[in-house]
Amino acid sequence: MAVTTPDARPETGSETQREPAEGTNQHPAVVEGGGIEHPAQQPVEPSVPTAPEAEAFAVTADTVDPEPPNPDCEAETLDALTPVSSPSVVTPVIERPAAAPAEVPSAHPPVREVAGVAPPVLATGSAAPNDATAADLDAALGEALDVIRRLQARLRAQVLGRDEVIDLVLVALLSDGHVLLEDYPGSGKTTLAKTLGLSIVDDREDRANAAETEIVPFRRIQFTPDLLPSDVTGVSVFDANTSLFHFRHGPLFAHVVLADEINRTSPKVQAAMLEAMAEKQVTVDNVTHELDHLFFVIATQNPLDLAGTYPLPAPQLDRFLFKLRMDHIDRDAELRVLDTYRERRDVVRADLPRVGRGEVLAARRAVEDGVAIDPSIKSCLVDLSRNLREDDRVLQGNSTRSLVLILPALQAMAAVRGRDYVSADDVRVLAPRVLGHRVELAPGVSDFEEVLRDAMAEPLESLARRTLSRRTSERRSRS
């Protein structure tokens, strides 16, 4: 029986439906169970909707007005109707077809296979978070290795016979540390620092801010006894036109700073250097000025000519990650220096690309995140430190901060050697460079290498046993 309302229309098919008034957006509302709520007082029994009505149900009342049914979509719409348990009531449900997953280009390097462990599968669409993270870390670590190789190529082309020193300088750069060189005049320290500074390009996007802070690639400071802190940090200059003070940046505002003969300057200047190296900032007239994130210091001191010098205090020595000795190069390297002197001085090596500042900072993060340190390596470092502190030949052992600083250095050393894990050999190579200037020997003891060798013997042996036991267990599990 049709429901009679003032603007009702004759019944069509098996159901009566009210047309919305002109100029309004009132549509039949779908209620629970698939029925239709009419404006009339008398309820209407729900029934199976037809194909045009099911298509109209897919569009809600809050979007657009219902459009005439499309004959081409009748079959798809009828297939989308899902019946419920009641045979007389059907709830129209339109399922959206799942989009085909897009193919991911093979931009990641090949996944390394570890014995006994199934390699991760880079799936498309809904990839596992761990797999995606591992692939990203591998890609970032590969880019970091490329940055290291480019810097190595440029430095080794200019500084001959110093491959080991070059690698250690790059390790300090990647681990955000500083280097103290004990060398003789004319050993190539200035060439090494200048080549490193000129190999890094300032690729910051905010070039205006870069110009304001006056960050330059390289600066060399010759320390003398009459040097003042403002000579290295900067000074406030009074402008008579504006009656204001303007800060003029000192030579510390650079990517790479060569502090030549740092032990010849007064303790006041050394204190200013200590703040710059520890906090990457300088304070002038109670105003703090930030240095660049890539701020890297290569300091030198002459181990023989100590007259009129100010020995570096222990807190400032502790700010240097490495203390390196640059001995004389061998005969073949010295001959190559003489043969290629003019070429290295006059020719600009355009075939050796430089690296960007952002690339170096990204390489630091990639090495820190992508190079693994086994807990046994940390146990070895702690045992080594405890052996040094308990040795009667040691007056003062190394601090805990030295162990914190050596961790990123070990990661960087592994990356320089092309590995994504820290090995016992990395500990053996870096321990003398990191701990040599932090351990004070007792009076009458002068051979630090012997003391360190005795302290490292047991921890390294224990580390080797744990490594061998783990490899044996893995081999048995595979078999």
Describe the structure.
Helix 3 packs across helix 4 (163-174), helix 3 crosses helix 12 and helix 15 (424-435) runs antiparallel to helix 16. The chain is globular. By secondary structure, the chain is α/β, with parallel strands linked by helices. It has three domains: 1-94, no CATH class; 130-368, P-loop containing nucleotide triphosphate hydrolases (Rossmann fold, 3-Layer(aba) Sandwich), CATH 3.40.50.300; 371-479, Magnesium chelatase subunit I, C-Terminal domain (Helicase, Ruva Protein, domain 3). Strands 7-10-13-5-14 form a five-stranded parallel β-sheet. A two-stranded antiparallel ribbon has the order 1-2. It has 16 helices and 17 strands.
Compact description:
The protein has 479 residues and is α/β, with parallel strands linked by helices. It has 16 helices and 17 strands.
